Amino acid sequence: MNRTRAMATGLAALLPLLPMSLISSPAQAQQYREYRDVNPAIQGFNVDEVRRLDPGVELPFTLFGTPGGTATIHISGANRNLTMVETEPGRYEGVYTIGTRDKITPSSSVRANLRVGNNVASSILSESLVRLPRGDRGTAVAGGPHIERFDVESNANDLGPGSDLVFTVNGTPGGRVRMSIAGARGEFFLPEVQPGLYRGTYTVRNGDAIRPDSQVNASLRQGDRVVSATLGKPLLAAAAPAVVERRVTRYCTNCATIEAVNIVNVSGDGGYIGAIAGTVVGGLLGNQVGSGNGRT
User: Fold this and answer.
1) b/e map of 130-159 (b: 16 or more CB within 10 Å)?
2) Mind listing the pLDDT tens digit for each residue in 274-292?
3) Strand order of the sheet with strand 164-171?
4) What is the residue range of the signal peptide feature (predicted)?
5) Which of 31-45, 70-84, 167-181, 226-240 has the lowest mean pLDDT?
6) How much is the CA Rg of the chain, to the nearest whole Å?
7) Per-residue pLDDT band at 3 (split at 50, 70, 90)
8) What is the DSSP secondary structure assignment for residue 80, as one 8-state letter?
9) CB neighbour class for 270 (10 Å; exposed up to 12, middle 13-18, buried from 19)
10) What Cα–Cα distance (Å) separates residue 65 from each residue in 69, 90, 133, 186, 259?
């Protein structure tokens, strides 16, 4: 009897929860369907370039895209894939440590996949894994793309939000130029305004941490070949040094000129001060009272 009463009490306690379960299940199913039907997109894919690709060297990757997905990276020559972590909505980060069995080269292709539900978006890294020397314009292989000039112009006094940076790349026509700025989120493309001339403006956004010496990389892709270059100048022209006006002390050429020295006899011990004072006063009086030649 007591057991039956306890079971009845337990069922009565669970009854209020049943409607919630019945209501939440369709909502969760609908949310899952919407989540599954999202078409993912990758807005940016970056790597912090390294000086060499030796075992133990870390390759930090950053991907910007649709939030709530699963991002993985595959590097040609690597023995394993890298699964990235979503550190904030739409931002995925991961570090690949080169192993002794990896055969990664500076020209190894790197592909990122972003899966949301049953849909996948892919992007190929457009920059080299190895950092180019600052100012290096890149070396194109025979028959491949090349970059002849990489420049930036700015009339702004700082790099605050709203400041414009105009980038120009001269290189192989018919390609695609992708750029990345250290401190800026994601990547952007330069349109080809004339054959072989790529030009575009980047407007600094809120949240950017761009500095005058931030590294800027440009890559020119033509087919399956890519050439990269690093900007060899600061983003802002060095401020002109302040002009310091030298003040030249001008001396009066005929003020208190001693034209004659008069010896003044002073009775008693006047000392040196009295003699010097008398000499100066005598000269001044001689210049003003006399004939202009200092004689009394």
Assistant:
1) bbbeeeebbebeeeebbbeebebebeeeeb
2) 444 444 444 544 555 455 5
3) 147-153, 164-171, 197-203, 192-194
4) 1-29
5) 31-45
6) 40
7) low
8) S
9) middle
10) 9, 5, 30, 9, 91
The end-to-end CA distance of the chain, in Å, is: 145
Q: Model confidence over 21-74: pLDDT tens digits? A: 444 445 544 544 555 567 898 877 888 888 899 999 999 998 888 999 999 999
Task: Name all domains of the chain by residue range, CATH numbers in brackets.
Answer: 42-124 (2.60.40.10), 147-230 (2.60.40.10), 250-296 (no CATH)
Of 111, 73, 117, 120, whose CA–CA distance to 92 is shortest? 73
**114 has a pLDDT exceeding 80:** yes
Contact, 108 vs 101, CB < 8 A? no
Report how far residue 118's alpha carbon sits from residue 178's, in angstroms, rounded to the nearest whole number.
Answer: 28
pTM of the model: 0.46
Q: Token pair for residue 247?
A: 């003040």
Average pLDDT, the chain: 74
- CA–CA distance, 163 with 203 (Å, rounded to integer): 6
Q: Which pair of structure tokens corresponds to residue 146?
A: 């090349």
Give 189's contacts (C-beta < 8 A, 6+ positions apart). 176, 177, 178, 179, 200
Please identify which residue in the block is written with the tokens 């011990």: 269
In angstroms, the CA 51 to CA 253 distance is 68
Which residue is listed with tokens 């989540």? 35
Q: DSSP secondary structure string, 13-69?
A: HHTTHHHHHHHHHHHHHHHHHHHHT----EEEEEE--BS---TT-EEEEEEEE-TT-
Helices (H), the chain: 2-14, 17-36, 271-288
